[in-house]
Design goal:
By secondary structure, the protein is α/β, with parallel strands linked by helices.
Length: 424
């Protein structure tokens, strides 16, 4: 069976991180999201892959090329305009026309490879015309929700129901198997939901239920959820990996499972608490504290006395001494000045809200810090309030309290009145 990976979306809810890369190329623990999807397909013996690309396609194509390095065969098809999932699937028709059935996977879904295998098994065992994977979620208002019968037949799909009005808590999990006839329904019905609804009336569409961990990366906080899933799968119950070329001072302390890559330097007095990942050529300074579920990219510098907690730090970023970065995502080549603090809880422990493309969205986590775009420079002693988005290529002056979102390519400074008077 061949697989189609949908990787053309704009990822606008994940700005500013997606201003400089397509969403499938967001890295966690040294790999882009799309690589985890490809590896899951390969583990299910699916090595013939067609990727639908669009926004910043060259980043994906330059990284994966034709799949030789990943022991798969990769071809590409271009979706020039972001016209939805149904259009993306239709773009593959010419190359998939000789396939009786095929798999479709979203590039922003992370789960155990068994999710793919189970969806395929349901399709074959029930002689289905289509099978849709579904999983239980706590916040159905963020997802497409499926309703199905006791014998697992799909009844209908509701897209992003209002809070409290969802007919179920089973969300579409981003893995499908279709017979080739889906193309006919997509052409006549125009949307994927409508095409599946029509197919349900004329054929057999089943739901394959997934009850294990699963993450769809739609919003910034989903990156932290994906990071926990990846690190848990990579490390928990498997012990640590420490590269031979890593240099760890005698006075450094390693607790729990960790992945420490080539040429990492960890200085005396620092503590690393796993599960965590530290990428190649990164430096952890004296007395730093790296707490659980931190993913550090390549060529990162963490200064003296820095504390990191439940965060994803992209490649090439520098974090100055005595800073605190908690429950946050920092893009590539961010320069964080000494003493910078990300607040990860709101005053009086009130809910945290973020402005996502003009919509006020409640963060479904008790703690959430900042999202900072690539190439941003933050001077010493800045403070960033919870849930703030700081764009790419931003300069923030010393001592600023960032209490609102900051657009890309801007400067931020605080006006100050200094009074000097004689002592009485």
């Amino acid at each position: 069976m061949k697989a189609v990976i949908l990787a053309a979306g704009l990822g606008y809810r994940l700005k500013p991180l997606t201003e400089t890369r397509p969403k499938p190329m967001l890295e966690i623990a040294g790999k882009p999201l799309l690589q985890y999807v490809i590896e899951s397909l390969r583990e299910n013996q699916i090595k013939d892959i067609l990727i639908v690309v669009g926004y910043k396609r060259e980043v994906i194509e330059d990284y994966f090329e034709f799949g030789d390095k990943f022991n798969v065969k990769i071809d590409y098809v271009l979706q020039e305009e972001a016209l939805g999932v149904e259009d993306a699937i239709l773009k593959t028709e010419e190359k998939m026309k000789n396939e009786e059935q095929f798999l479709v996977v979203h590039a922003d879904v992370l789960a155990d490879p068994e999710l793919i295998g189970r969806t395929i098994k349901t399709f074959k065992d029930l002689d289905a015309d289509a099978t849709i994977s579904a999983t239980l979620v706590e916040n159905p208002q963020f997802y497409g929700i499926v309703v199905f019968s006791e014998d697992s037949k799909l009844e209908y799909i509701v897209e992003k129901p209002k809070p409290g009005e969802s007919p179920s808590n089973y969300a579409v999990a981003g893995v499908y198997v279709f017979k080739n006839i889906i193309f006919d329904f997509l052409r006549s019905e125009k949307t994927l939901d409508a095409a599946i609804r029509k197919l349900t009336q004329k054929g057999n569409v089943y739901v394959s239920v997934w009850e294990k961990e699963w993450v769809e990366i739609r919003y910034p906080w989903d990156i932290l959820r994906a990071n926990r899933l990846v690190l848990s799968k990579m490390l928990k119950g498997k012990g640590s990996f420490i590269a031979e070329t890593a240099s760890i001072d005698n006075g450094a302390k390693i607790e729990g499972p960790v992945w420490i890559s080539n040429n990492v330097k960890i200085r005396s007095g620092s503590t690393i608490k796993g599960p965590c990942y530290i990428g190649e050529n990164s430096y952890i300074g004296n007395n730093a504290l790296i707490r659980e579920y931190v993913s550090i990219g390549r060529d990162v510098i963490v200064g003296f006395g820095v504390e990191l907690k439940n965060s994803v730090i992209f490649n090439g970023t520098k974090i100055g001494r005595l800073s605190f970065i908690g429950d946050s995502i920092l893009g590539e080549n961010v320069d964080v000045g000494a003493g910078t603090q990300t607040w990860n809880v709101s005053p009086r422990s009130e809910p945290i809200y973020m402005n996502i493309e003009g919509e006020k969205v409640r963060v479904p986590m008790e703690k959430f810090g900042a999202v900072i775009g690539d190439n941003t420079r933050i001077s010493i002693n800045a403070s960033i309030l919870p849930g703030k988005l700081i764009g790419t290529n931003v300069d923030i002056s010393p001592g600023v309290i960032v209490d609102r979102d900051v657009q890309s390519n801007t400067e931020v400074y605080a006006k100050q009145e200094v009074v000097i008077r004689s002592k009485q």
